[in-house]
Amino acid sequence: xxxxxxxxxxxxxxxxxxxxxxxxxxxxxxxxxxxxxxxxxxxxxxxxxxxxxxxxxxxxxxxxxxxxxxxxxxxxxxxxxxxxxxxxxxxxxxxxxxxxxxxxxxxxxxxxxxxxxxxxxxxxxxxxxxxxxxxxxxxxxxxxxxxxxxxxxxxxxxxxxxxxxxxxxxxxxxxxxxxxxxxxxxxxxxxxxxxxxxxxxxxxxxxxxxxxxxxxxxxxxxxxxxxxxxxxxxxxxxxxxxxxxxxxxxxxxxxxxxxxxxxxxxxxxxxxxxxxxxxxxxxxxxxxxxxxxxxxxxxxxxxxxxxxxxxxxxxxxxxxxxxxxxxxxxxxxxxxxxxxxxxxx
Length: 345
Fold this sequence. Notes:
Helix content: 40-55%
Distance between the termini: 63 Å
Order of helices and strands: HHHHHHHEEHHEEHEEHEEHH
Number of strands: 8
């Protein structure tokens, strides 16, 4: 039997308003039936990590990942143990939760093109939860908008897949682009240590093409949504050995710090993109990343704080230009110099 483990799921059940739904059906039961079906037929076959056709071993896309995305969506909406209400209607929350359940379920087929599979899975599910093709299409388009590319490489999947800011199903209005943006950004910020391999403890045990993906997740010691400060706070913890070594990433090697810069820039770009659809509902407009380098005794060696709000707003943070002493090669040399000085060299 399905259990609601996240605050957003519990809020959906507690604040459920039948008058905000397009039919007299029990949409809480629909959602539970969908979650049960996906657990039996998809999630357990994705496994604890996702493998690509080239042998890459990506971070966790198993059952826990979907609940993590739901948890972060709840954070963005201000759902807490003291507050079960948000500005979404009951139907919008149903669409949000359903789309999150489906957004990465396509990995059961293949990592490549997984974002295009929600409709295929919903059709296979049949009458279990979503009876009408129209409603399946609504959910599938929202779920598919979380990633991938359209029109030969364009990442603007929300506008491409969802034509209107506000739509209607039967007599109920809903905001599909807003819901899709919440799915997409919650998925973006839910990366953390729990998504790394639980049995491959040495990075050299991982396929070379995947090493930096797991190290990146491992380096995230915390990621929180602070609505009072209107930002996402991410803390990265690095060790000397991780600063001095290049690790495998697809068809090249890179320093972990450079991967962190790339991912913080991507997170900021995703926020700028998704905020176009937040309509003032999601009170987040900045990223603060704190990067701390430790020695093997966990003594702090150096620290950098990045605030996306600084300076004139841009679609690109250009972190390598703003913090050249922290770029991979330069940070490596600097840490070696600090280490040499501390040893009396």
